[in-house]
Amino acid sequence: MPTDKEGDFIDPKEQEESLENIFSSLNDFQEKTDANAQKNEQKNEQEEEQRRLKEQQRLRKNQKNQEMLKGLQQNLNQFAQKLESVKNKTLDLQIPKQDGVDEKAYQEWYAQIYQILYKGWKGVFYHKASVSALIMIAKDGEFDYTILSYSDFKDYNKSVMTLLNDLKKVDFPPYPGGSMISIQVNFTTKEEQ
Question: Compositionally biased, Basic and acidic residues: which spans (predicted)?
Fold first, then answer.
């Protein structure tokens, strides 16, 4: 009689379990694959978000740099205009120095007078012109003036007179010699080239 060999035939229950294991393994594999795909997708989204943020930061930084550059360019243009204005103006002060006045005190006083006059002289004129004035500074620093000669240009004359009238409101440092002083000042512009 023939004997049944083990393994020649599979019990249907075992076959079901075996198929169940296979499908279960497939489901596990599918879940793992889906989970990995999800992780990769999240990672890619995070990397993309970081790239977008970096790009936005770079663009903001570029914009700030361009704004700063524009501001610097405007400042440079203003500086160039002021430099051109300074180049075309001269202020000649003829101050008689009195004996017995301390040299250092005199130099400091002269620098202050020059600075006050030049700082107030804001006008820009593009023709050769000169106005000569005699300015007087009293012991108490009070300022007054007399025009000695005018230029050929009414506008220029008016701008110098406006400056001198405005300077009447300024307290000048008194002359270190302790007395009133008269100074001849020539406000001169050069013709623009």
Answer: 29-58
